[in-house]
Amino acid sequence: MPQHPIVRALALVLALALPGLAAAEEVPAAGASAWRFEVAPYAWLTGTFGTVEVENRTAFVDLTVDDLLTLLFDGDALAGAAWFQASYGRWSAFLDAFGGYVELKTDAKVCCTTLDAKLTMYPVAIDVGFGYQLGAWTLRDRRRPLTLGVYAGTRIMHLGNVLRADTQRPGVVGRALAADEAFDWADPMIGVRWEVPVHDRLSLDFRGDIGGFGASSDLIWGLVGGVRWWLPWSPWGSQPWLGLGYRAISFDHDFGPDSAGNLEMRGPYSALGFAF
Length: 276
What we know:
Elements (H helix, E strand, L loop, with lengths): L4 H17 L3 E2 L8 E10 L2 E8 L2 E7 L1 H9 L3 E12 L2 E20 L2 E26 L7 E24 L2 E28 L2 E10 L5 E14 L8 E18 L2 E17 L1
Antiparallel strand pairs: 1-7, 2-5, 2-13, 3-4, 3-13, 5-6, 6-7, 7-8, 8-9, 9-10, 10-11, 11-12, 12-13
């Protein structure tokens, strides 16, 4: 039977950590009493997949990462993202924000009428969470500890849509059509996270959550997994790192009496982070 992505990630983490767990010792809580901060701007290439239903009619969405790269190179898409976390002892608060726009253009000719249309979408996803570190354990021959924690928070979503269309027909005055609509909502979520040191300068990070619970969406979930390479210098007293990984978020949400969306945004990311 196929395994859920969270189950596969947990199995990988255990496989990497077990060789060092035999000599693991929990890091004393008193040694982690200072404030710590982390900031990381990152680029997330998101494909979008799923369905949108309006008035009992279903449209299938299949925007791949290759499609997004084509739009980026053509100047029809732009996005940015950033991660920020503040920690004190075992407690932490974080913000993970992503936003951008995508322009989709099309033209068609039906009989004698020519249609030129442009749809601009403005997706925004913001995660706000508060976490607690269940434990931190030193591993044999590892400078960084293995950490395990839980968190709870909110995922805030915004989907803005702007449609512009022009129709032209010989001998008839052309018509311009326009429609704007935006949807905003927020969902509660709970999750688990961990970091596994594979090498003194290489670690694996994972964050997975689930939520919605009918509060706004029927179901939401998110997965973020990647590797961090800790750089060997310390500018301004920080610990810089480079990150590569994969992120996915999904929601099943009713926009109104006759409209709904079941969409998944997923793709690779790269990051440059600084821990203070």
